[in-house]
Model the fold of this input.
Amino acid sequence: MHWVITMSRRPFVRRSLAAVLSVLVFTACQPRASDAADVPLAAAGLAQISTTPTAAVATPQGGVVLPDFAALVQQHGPAVVNISTKGKRVRLSGPGMSPNDPFYEFFRRFGAPGGGRGVPGMPDEGEESFRRPGGEGSGFIVSSDGYVLTNAHVVDEAEEVTVKLTDRREFKAKVVGLDKPTDVAVLKIDAKSLPVVRLGNPKKLRPGEWVIAIGSPFGFDNSVTAGIVSATARGLPDGDSNYVNFIQTDVAVNPGNSGGPLFNLAGEVVGINSQIYSRSGGYMGISFAIPIDLAVNVRDQIIAKGRVSRGKIGVQIQPVDAALAESFGLDRPRGALVGSVEAGGPAAKAGIRQGDIILSANGTSIERSEQLPTIIGVIQPGAEATLEVWRDGAARKLSVRVAELQTEPVVASNDEPAPERSPDRLGLVVRELTAEERSQGFGPRGRQRGPNAEMPEGLLVERATGPAADAGLTRGDIVVSVNGSPVKTIKDFRERVSRAGKTVALLINRGGNTLFVAVRTTS
Done:
């Protein structure tokens, strides 16, 4: 199993053993043994994004040599800082852990509740003690008067934050603000004439380009590691990362690197090191950085108004694969397919429809669906955005006024077995919804949609096999339309499926969300 890990050297206090075993997102900071609007800030003296092109690797007399990073580190390393945190005192009590326990060595080395008898930070049986959890990470100075950027998870819930410079001076830092969706935090220390980094343009990064990271892995402050850009605009399978298209690199990033800068060869910061992809919890060749232009947008908003506003247009989207592209007559898989449109929302008012494929936003092409939330998210609410959409085999442009994103509720699930019937040519067994199901307001898979909710029109999937199962349909989905034509009865469904070709585009409702699924048949 592969894990996306935010490498945070953070305490294990208040985490259960189950959480330790099941965590999928780790940070790039290190737990100690004690365990969207542009706001100009020239007046604050903040470093601005540079557009200087990335320096080329030296190639003397036809030979290719590795670049010399020493001058870059010597010049810009002093602006990289070590960050240590202390949280609130917590009371710990309970029996110790036996050395024969399979997790004894893990807790002995890293610290966790339930330790004791040689396990750091835990009392022996019958004893009671207090501890103050702490952590370590990295950061970098972006203004000579003391503004520092780091990851939100480095300082989240910290009661005391200390910033240590390369000359070993230490300052108590104030957390100006943090934004968890992008994992960006802004700190302020009381100092003047500090060294600062130069900020580059991550949009100019190319896969294969050299980059270096400076940070404090395992507490070894100002350690330098190098590698190349592996990919850009990388989306991660994590709901908390919807507003970040990461820079993927093979730079070694380990616990304690969180919040440190990613430099290009021109000595410009192009990203903030944040996460790794790992089976073991340690570096395995894949790391991720937050693009610095996104971090700057968050920084400016936090300093200007204390919070981050995000734009939304009121659509639910999904990726466009080869089968869906063929179904909608698109030349190749690209764009973001609109699965549903919020009633009365900005997209609905602009004329965007279910089944449209958004190909670009404000002139930026959408190759992958995960790019759209990032682009829309940084647009200031109230501003207009121009979208290019694919509809009925042709592209058209629509103007939409962006609204402000609000938090959405979470629903629960309750699966029940379904009866057996013979599947159709798609591999589906469907039935009409009962009046009781509609009145109860239950969504797919028994997910309750609210006391006044109504079920959508469509047919409930009782079983999915063959092509339908291969395409990702599952019991509890509701089929709303077939190739764009609504279906309310089994007769409607069978007629539309019988007239369809080898690729059938089904619009389904799943847990209150709608999405298109392309099913390839063999007949």
Notes: The mean pLDDT is 78. The first strand starts at residue 3 and ends at 5.
